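FORM 7B: Structural annotation worksheet

SECTION A. Query
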Amino acid sequence: MRKLLQKQESGSKKSKKVAAPPPTEQNKMSIGLIYVSEHYCGWKEQCLRVLQSKFDCQVRFFTPDQEIIEALQNCSIGQGTNFKQVQKLCMPFIRFKKDEAREVGPQALDLKLPFSEMDVLRENLELIQRQLGLEHVEVLSASDETARGKAGKYVSLSDHNPPSPGDPVAIFLTKQEFNVQN
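SECTION B. Predicted structure
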């Protein structure tokens, strides 16, 4: 989150040759919004469902990749679009989850974490706030439209890289931006 805060403060459109001026009190990112998704959804959910059906829990072994690819092709994300693009999107995630399942077992393929990620983050709000040097931090559900509205013009950051279990998305705002949204 610290690197994301620095990136957002410096702005992605500025020239890298010129050092960004230090943030003033007005334009300092001092508010953090952490968006959490408690369940995998969309293409990740479908990938996990395919993997669940192709995993032998007893020996921690998957069926051959070709069977997994065929199952992926037969589910809704594999239909109606360019399947090569679907594969390009899904295969890195599938490889990661296969390795994780072999290592820790079938719970790696669950659609939800075995604990409440929102609760853990809320219990550690003071630490997060102190470590990032923020005045205010909120943990919000990514599926709550009202909560998404708090991000204002930065909501696109969450759209381009949506949160998933264990991988929340942090958006940082100035006080002024936050007050306009609330």
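SECTION C. Observations
The two ends are 23 Å apart (CA to CA). The longest helix spans residues 83-104.

SECTION D. Sign-off
Analyst initials: ____
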